[in-house]
Amino acid sequence: MTTDTTSKSPEAAAVPPSGPAPVTKRVPQGHKRLLTRRDRITLGFMAGVPTILHVALVWVTALASIALAFTSWDGIGFDSIKWVGLDNFRQLFTDNPQFWPAVEHNVIWFVVLILVPTPFGLFLAVQLDKKIRFSRLYQTAFFLPVVVSLAVTGFVWQLVYNPDTGLINSLIGANKPGHYIDWIGDPKLNLWAVLIAASWRHTGYMMILYLAGLKGVDPSLREASSLDGANEWQTFKNVIFPTLRPTNTVVLVVTIIEALRAFDLVFVFNKGAQGTELLSILITNNIIGESSRIGYGSAIAVVLLVISLAVIIPYLIATFRKERQA
Amino acid sequence: MSTLALKTRTPIRPARILLHVFLAGTALAWLAPLLWAIYAALRPYSETSNKGYVSWPDKLTFDNFTNAFQQSDMLHYLGNTLIIAIPAVLITLLLSSMVAFYVSRFDFRLNIALLLVFTAGNLLPQQVIITPLYRLYLLVDLPGITMSGKLYDSALGLVLIHVAFQSGFCAFVLSNYMRMLPHELTEAALVDGASVWRMYWQIVLPLCKPAMAALGTLLSIWIYNDFFWAIVLISTGENMPITSALNNLSGQYFTDPNLVAAGALLTAIPTLIVYFVLQRQFVSGLTLGANKG
Questions:
Q1: A296 in B contact zone (CB under 8 Å)
Q2: Interface test with A, best of B128, B166, B207, B259 (most A CBs within 10 A)
Q3: Where do the H-state alpha helices sit in B52-193?
Q4: Given A69, A190, B94, B223, which is the most exposed site by the fewest CB atoms within 10 A?
Q5: How many other CB atoms are there within 10 angstroms of residue B52's CB atom?
Q6: Is residue A168 within 8 angstroms of chain B, CB to CB?
Q7: Environment class of residue B292 by beta-carbon count within 10 Å: exposed (0-12), middle (13-18) or buried (19+)?
């Protein structure tokens, strides 16, 4: 989602081939100076309609989450909204047995994704970038999990992990009483079981991003490096990897977002029961679960929002600043 | 290994063979869960419950697939998904290309801010906005317009949220793409008195076909695969798209894993077809956002 755009912005290059150059001291940039009133109205609609839709459904609701987090509301009639200040947060931080485990699991999710499938995806990308035979075939195999929906992925891995009939337990004989391993129900195991499934998917995603990044590496760099007598590892470490910086930024952001968004897999796997609580699951349970406490659910959403924006905003500012300089 | 041999095939060397062995083994391991699901789905439940799952098959049949397809009324749910996905993809492409056209061709102060808002919105986890969105959908009455009489539990509601959410990413990608187009193109048209709409519809859009195709492929797969909105914003079984319907199916038939496996695999088939047919577009769509298109 970033561009390392090095091209000059088109406006700078645009010297109109003809047309009346206004005699004012500063020529407005772009096409603005030639617009009729109708054009302006058209433009207003073109930018306005999508923006209104997006802002109304995404940003207004995000702000509503913040506002509702300080209230208690049963959802019936607006007059029952009560201002409760920081009460929801106090309860959340001090006496919700699921909250801190959920935060911890979201963090573990990110750490595992960035330490295991991400480097492995990079490794695969480097190998597949060598113009070897069957490269397409291998790529397809690794990429298939990214295409299949996470819900389906959840069901497929359930078949692998099912304690009575699953592949793993059937192979190692752990489906008999006495040495029974409950991959889905045991709170000590189930998070790791789900993370294996998540990593299975994430590897292919990272591989594709890195393959795209590697395509952009100038071949002459490699040649120069091998002429200098560097071996493959040295070339990668000192020449290739540093040029992948923009890709690494994207990979980092994508992985953080993936970890914050993790939901489908866990929901299908075991509904986020003990051991696999996540912030996204807690928020959702507050809506479709037994107790619909709107203010309380919104308070969890605010925690998720703050963490997300802490990542998104610096990343976007850096991205757009680079574009401006270009 | 030298990397000089970029133009010719490298001769067979032990290291290369080892690499192939490793890659083939890993690729097989990667396919294993799916292959396992296919194997389970091809066997009758009675057989696997007698012999266990890790066993040689006595017979392989497509019965589970036909049963899952008929008993769960899969075509109906596939129809539900299409009613949501097709309009959502088309409207998203239309709206995001308009925004992209605006911010890439008209240098108003707004455009960076606008792109920021769109892109950041797209990166937010969906659960951040779900509580108020859910309430909002329950509040909006649309008598006669949707089956449920509300935005909640309607295809329209799902289309709207998909469009709102996905247009962020698409606007970002398309605006980068449009900025690469030479400015003289539209400059000349404008001098000749073409309207803004004509510039967009007849000059810029046709040039964006590759990017639109890539994004369209990506969106189709994403929206087809959507599970979260479908779970929270659709409550009546009848109206569910295929992903959340599958969730129901598994609840109903949890005693027959083979049937559930068949249902899950059937659900995945349309995405796989789209992917195999439009592989190049899909991959370039994913990387368009990450690199210069």
A1: no
A2: B128
A3: 63-71, 74-105, 110-123, 127-139, 155-179, 184-191
A4: B94
A5: 12
A6: no
A7: middle
Instruction: Give pLDDT, residue B113.
Output: 85
- The SS3 assignment for A72 reads strand
Task: Give tens-digit pLDDT for B174-209.
Answer: 988 898 888 888 888 878 888 889 999 999 999 999
Burial of A281 (0-12, 13-18, 19+ CB in 10 A): buried
Contact A43 B196 (CB under 8 A): yes
How many whole angstroms separate alpha carbon A18 and alpha carbon A28? 15
DSSP designation for B237: G
How sure is the predictor about B5, in pLDDT bands with cuts at 50, 70 and 90?
very low
* d(C-alpha A266, C-alpha A273), whole Å: 9
Query: What does the pLDDT read at residue A26?
Result: 45
B 162-191 → A contacts, CB under 8 A: 163-165, 167-169, 171-172, 176, 179-184, 186-188, 190-191
pLDDT given at position B267: 94
In this predicted model, what pLDDT tens digit does every residue of B129-171 receive, in sequence order? Answer: 999 999 999 888 888 777 778 889 999 999 999 999 999 889 9
Sequence-distant (≥ 6) Cβ neighbours of residue B274 within 8 angstroms:
B217, B220, B221, B224, B282
- All residues at 6 or more sequence positions from B270 whose CB lies less than 8 Å from its CB, including other chains: B78, B224
d(CA A320, CA B115): 9
- Residues B85-126 have pLDDT tens digits of 999 999 999 999 999 999 888 865 677 888 889 989 989 999
The pLDDT-based confidence of A257 (bands split at 50, 70, 90) is: very high
Residues, chain B, total?
293
- How much is the mean pLDDT over chain B? 87
Q: Among the residues of chain A, which ranges form H helices?
A: 10-13, 37-54, 61-68, 87-95, 99-115, 117-128, 135-147, 150-161, 167-172, 190-215, 219-227, 232-235, 241-243, 245-261, 264-270, 279-288, 294-325
**DSSP characters for A139-155?**
HHHHHHHHHS-HHHHHH
